[in-house]
Amino acid sequence: METEKLNFDKCPNCGGEHTLADDILQKEIEKGKMAKETRAFLFQHQSIIAKSSGWLSAPIITTFYDMCVDCGTIRCIHAETGTVVAGGKNLPNAGGQFSRS
Length: 101
Ligand SMILES: [Zn+2]
Known about the structure:
The structure is a single chain. This protein is mainly beta. It is 11% helix and 32% strand. The chain is elongated. The protein binds zinc ion (ZN). Zinc ion is lined by residues 11, 13-14, 16, 68, 70-71, 73.
């Protein structure tokens, strides 16, 4: 399964583009403490979206969330698809960050 990545750059509630964790991260990047391509988020969630009986692998979606600093809405900022193998040994490892490319 090919990985698909989706970015959501604007708040669906107010249209704001700034998010809390990313704003804090940008300050760290400006200080040279973090790599420029790093993206921040408050939390992530992984969902196996479908599993057949006797499954060997299943599609998984990882979603990343942050908070809009303009209106406080918790919103999805990034999502990517992957594949999980039975037993969970090949869970995608976000490692606390993702790249927008
Ligand atoms: Zn907003």
